[in-house]
């Protein structure tokens, strides 16, 4: 039993040290980033329209329990992060129909990013996700070092693709524009 505890502690510490070294190599001691993309066999407007349906995210984002849209620019998120329920608020900083949606957290879990939509053909769209985030504790840092957020992002995009392609249409749309201040 003691050997198992020592082994787990050593692996965890090794993960933290690896994470810190990786961040140091990237020039950051606290934040991490992930970039993933997927091709979805729907027109760009369909992919974009579905992504604007923020309250639908729990249907394809495994760890997201609930999103409440407060107004055109503000959302409240509730999700499991490394096995712990967390909540945070998000501001949509830019939204250009069929092109991009950018955000940043304003409270709670520190994160921000952009999703862009690229027309490959009339019936195929590349959805690209770029996100920066700050692991808050040792468990999140270890998960970060082993690519947990990257794997979750990849899985979320795959489920988005499957959901949208199986349905063939979006569940709704918001075509308004949000510009940066």
From TrEMBL:
The residues the entry assigns to the signal sequence are none
> Which InterPro entries does the entry mention?
COQ10_START, ORF3, START-like_dom_sf
Domain Coenzyme Q-binding protein COQ10 START, residue spans? 40-158
Q: Name one Pfam family in it.
A: Polyketide_cyc
Q: PANTHER family attached here?
A: POLYKETIDE CYCLASE/DEHYDRASE AND LIPID TRANSPORT SUPERFAMILY PROTEIN, POLYKETIDE CYCLASE_DEHYDRASE AND LIPID TRANSPORT SUPERFAMILY PROTEIN
Family to which this protein belongs: Belongs to the ribosome association toxin RatA family.
Record protein name field:
Cyclase
Tell me which species this is from: Massilia glaciei
